[in-house]
Amino acid sequence: MQAKTSRRGEQTRERILDAAEQVFAEKDYSAARLEDVAQAVGIKRASIVYYYAGKQELYDAVEERIFTAMSSHTQGTQRPGENAINQLLDLLDGWLDFLVARPTAARILLRTSSNSYSDSRAPIRNSAGALTAWEEIIRRGQASGEFAEASPMHLLHLLGAGFIYYTATAQLLGDERNYDPANPVELEAFRTLMHRSAKALLTP
Amino acid sequence: MQAKTSRRGEQTRERILDAAEQVFAEKDYSAARLEDVAQAVGIKRASIVYYYAGKQELYDAVEERIFTAMSSHTQGTQRPGENAINQLLDLLDGWLDFLVARPTAARILLRTSSNSYSDSRAPIRNSAGALTAWEEIIRRGQASGEFAEASPMHLLHLLGAGFIYYTATAQLLGDERNYDPANPVELEAFRTLMHRSAKALLTP
């Protein structure tokens, strides 16, 4: 009975996070309301508070879930024996494909990057795993001489910000410039450019 | 007397926009209040409404002023007789230097890019001049064969998003990764990478 209850609780928690990801992707933090999330799930506001003490805790959980899912996704694409540039391209491809398949996540990452919604330390904690994975490949490539010296964060801005913008702003450019980021032709064209930039930035 | 009054009105308007840019850079759209702006200027909320009908109008005016200032700044750096790659690097440098000198603008551009605050068409209208300036150089370079074929918007994501992130997220990466984007050594290192990426992306 206990197991059944907690399984049901886990399902409710997931449904809350699904709904919250939609709400936080659509509205800014201050405009998003727990009532909106409760209504989308079909439960009462008080039931959310049973799982998450408040909006900040819920937002942080949504963000954490996005980074965890992104990390699981890219771990599946990593090839341990590869040279550093191919590992880096695999990681970039994994992140890009993850965001294209989950546009709400791209929007929320952009929101996190402007960090306007709170003084919470959660964004730094939640993003640390992704930043560390990135840095480890760069440092390894630099140590072996395969990569040129450069700040891993500068490199991340020039490559990582690009795929977040590719995904999150595709419909915000105006009618004559908008595109579908999931269109395979569009996506492969962008990927080719991203790879070209990565190789140019990292080759000594 | 009329001229004096309107000059004073113009000064008040500028002070309102200055204060609003600070407020909108710090808080998300829904959290920002006209009262905060009024208090910073030292006037009553009703006095703001005399200039701007509401928060949306004020936000749009702040955004428009940023794009206008950015455009004026880069027009001063453009060299009409230059080849396309140098014109493009001049434009990128101008944008980068503008944002480094005005961090509130970088934060607001990031906010605009996630467009979570409204259904307003203002962001598309306000950014159109910058996007057009970018496209014109790319198209000219592509027409002459100096540049490889590629989507101007894809190129903008890989170069423009980079300098927005370089400026806006420098203090959001965690203590051991944070940096000062205005530090000349840091800035020149990033600029060198940005140029390298631009050349690699655009050279046929």
Automatic annotation (TrEMBL), chains A, B:
Single Gene Ontology MF annotation: transcription cis-regulatory region binding
Pfam families listed in its UniProt record: TetR_N (PF00440)
Keyword Transcription found: yes
Residue span(s) of domain HTH tetR-type: 10-70
The keyword Nucleotide-binding appears for this protein: no
Keyword terms: DNA-binding, Transcription, Transcription regulation
DNA-binding region: 33-52
Protein name (database record): TetR/AcrR family transcriptional regulator
The species this protein was found in: Parahaliea maris
